[in-house]
Amino acid sequence: MKITLGTVTHPGGSRVNKTGSWRTASKPRFNHQACVACDVCALVCPEGCIFGTGQNTYYANEDYCKGCGICAEVCPVHDIEMIPEAGEDG
Amino acid sequence: MMKEIRVHARAGQGAITTATILANAAFEDGKYALSFPTFGAARMGAPMNAFVRIGDAPIRVRSQIYKPDYVLVQDPSLLRGFDVVAGLKPDGLAVINSTRKPSELGLKTQARVLTTPAARIAKEIMGRADRVNTALIGAFIAATGELTMEAIEKAIYTRFSGKAAESNWKALVAAYDEVKNRENGL
Amino acid sequence: MVKGRMLQGARAMAEMCALCRPKVISAYPITPQTLIVEELSQIVADGDLEAEFINVEGEHSAASVVLGAAAVGVRVFTCSSSQGLLLMSEVIFNIAGMRLPVVMICVNRSVSAPLNIWNDQQDSIIMRDSGWIQLYAENNQETCDLLLQAHKIAEDHRVMLPAMVCCDGYVLPHAYEIVDLPSQAEVDAFLPSYDPIYKLDIDNPTTMGAFADPEKYMETRYMIQETMKKSLSVIEEVARDFGSSFGRSSYGLFEKYRVDDASTVVVALGSMAGTIKDVVDELRDQGEKVGILRLICYRPFPKEALYEALSAAENIVIMEKDISLGGSGAVATDMRAVFYGREACPRISGFILGLGGRDITVDDIKTTISKAQHQVADADFVGLKEDLELEGING
């Protein structure tokens, strides 16, 4: 890591900073059963780490997902649920 | 060799101009010069000083002038309450805007004292008795020859322009001539 | 005929500033800096300098404007004094931390309260810890010469730090003396156009002076500290370049006047050094081995060069126009640190003179030198009025 004169930083710093390490209790699970591709989960995600191209295709990049749960909260068809970090069995 | 001049005046009477003209003239004469004022409470009428140092080498000393070679007093009312000749060198000279005789002023100095009717000259030529500074310079040059009239003329025309330059130059020459005439017993 | 023109100091400084071709100027008038700002705004308004003169509502904004403009990648200039510089102080530290080569003239004036508009050097001395290079001028010629050099030093890619040229308020900008200013062509040949390393650019976005957590902040201070040390040689190099370009000596870190065989050496900054030089000559004529080292570069503090220059002296007499209240004079403190634990250990005395415009006379200087030859002084006030009753002290 380089510290530049005047701590000048270039765009894209948030890509280097993998906020997935901040997740503590839970992460979203996209059930891919009732999804209507409204895109709201992707819009509200504070990390911008939810992607999808049509019904039942959405997923969160876990390298950056902080587990905040907003996507699950806003999903109009309740197709996203927060599950314990260690997995369903844990 | 450095000569030090201290100007006594009240703020608004053009003492900074006096000092600047003298410094400029010295420069025109090929000498080094430094002029600067004291800064009091910046209000008209407050007693103040301006200082000039003239020398053959660059001027380094920046303190006020305590042992002047010459003292110029623009306002005779300063003689009440101020020791304008304080520190004046015994072989020095005080030039005072006054119509009285030097002996009547009661100045405590061994130095020569010269009075010049600068206010009267200024009134006659410029219509204003408070514009005494250029007349005072004329008397000073006549008495000391410290600077050439050519250099002073250039300095006057650098500082002033148009009618102001002409009338100031005229007042300066009138005061110069007045001293010279007295010296020559005219 | 003496070379140059008879100019008021402020006019000379404004003309020199314009010759350096800043693209953005922002300053807020404050006595005794006002004359310089008036002259500069006139020069810009007359179309004689292609620059934006940005009027602001105060010094914090003036400093912020030049910070922003420098960040965009242009040469900038500002100017202040006393309370104005203090109001700027938050931004002053940011400018250094962001490594922006801003150049300013500090017209030195005392700090309130009580209100006092006259000269001492307390204002810029307060800023010594900010990461700005500080250069102190003896006269108007040197203020102009240092202003030109300051741009070159600050913008050098080995440096990239802001620089403050300090001149004594009233004593210099309000005085008329002979100043020889270079031509535009000469200045252009000496000072290339500013080539920023980083700049704010919408096509290539960057963030400047961003957040640094405890894992990184300390390194940013270390970087400035190390750069400050390296900039000593750049300052000397630029002074040498200046000398060969303009045929007028520029002394770099400090000027030694009759120091080499002196047993007593006065150390001082700024215009009082001129008066001290005259005293040195007078004392030399009487057979006293006295000299003066006039410190030009106070930050970075040239520790090694000072050790070399002063290690043969028996007495070092620091005369300064500032005080760290409750401590000592700033320069005296730094000077003592130069000699601590070293082989040479001259006697070092510190004196405080000329605060708030108190005239520094030839007699003051003589008395001080003679006092320092008999005892070690620490922050001794010279020229106090003995007839005054001071409540809580002697009354």
Provide structural commentary:
The complex is a heterotrimer of chains A (90), B (186) and C (395). In chain A, 16% of the residues lie in helices and 16% in strands. Chain A has 90 residues and is an alpha+beta fold. Chain A has a two-stranded antiparallel sheet with strand order 1-4. A two-stranded antiparallel ribbon of chain A has the order 2-3. Chain A is elongated. In chain A, 17% of the residues are buried. With 186 residues, chain B is α/β, with parallel strands linked by helices. Chain B is built from 5 helices and 6 strands; from the N terminus they run E-H-E-E-E-E-E-H-H-H-H. Chain B has a 6-stranded mixed sheet with strand order 2-3-1-4-5-6, with helices on one face. In chain B, helix 2 (118-126) crosses helix 3 (133-144), helix 2 (118-126) packs antiparallel against helix 5 (162-183) and helix 3 (133-144) packs parallel to helix 5 (162-183). The N and C termini of chain B lie far apart (34 Å). By secondary structure, chain C is α/β, with parallel strands linked by helices. Chain C is built from 12 helices and 15 strands. Chain C has helices at residues 9-19, 34-45, 59-72, 82-97, 122-126, 140-155, 184-190, 217-246, 272-285, 303-310, 330-339, 362-372, and strands at residues 5-8, 24-25, 52-53, 76-80, 103-108, 133-136, 163-168, 176-179, 254-257, 264-268, 290-295, 297-299, 315-320, 347-352, 380-381. A 7-stranded mixed sheet of chain C has the order 3-2-4-5-7-6-12, with helices on both faces. Strand 2 (32-37) of chain B pairs antiparallel with strand 8 (176-179) of chain C.
